[in-house]
Amino acid sequence: VQLQASGGGLVQTGGSLRVSCAASGRALSNYYMGWFRQAPGKERELVAAITMSGSSSYYADSVKGRFTISRDNAKNTMYLQMNSLKAEDTAVYYCAADDRSYGAVISDAAESWGQGTKVTVSS
Known about the structure:
Elements: E1 2-6, E2 9-12, E3 17-24, E4 32-38, E5 45-50, E6 57-59, E7 67-72, E8 77-82, E9 91-98, H1 102-106, E10 112-113, E11 117-122
Parallel strand pairs: 2-11
Antiparallel strand pairs: 1-3, 3-8, 4-5, 4-9, 5-6, 7-8, 9-10, 9-11
């Protein structure tokens, strides 16, 4: 599957932004999915993950209550709604997919990755 992330941009502290991840080549419904981010000088970290059906999700503590991961399998697209953005959310956001296991996504071992979309939160 090929993944294309989009929707990043510049937003003020406290603002909202939604990033999207469009899949092509295979049906997204066959994949566990996740959003990762990498800030300058820091390692990549898992932000959120979602099961194939969307019935279950995982969030990093740093984004719980502010970010929402969702997917529309009919549109072959996954989303990350980000609210109450903080300066520390500034990063390049990547989407990832794996058809083997949810654990592969959560453990940063997903087999497919998008190119990333940059989110900058200004204070």
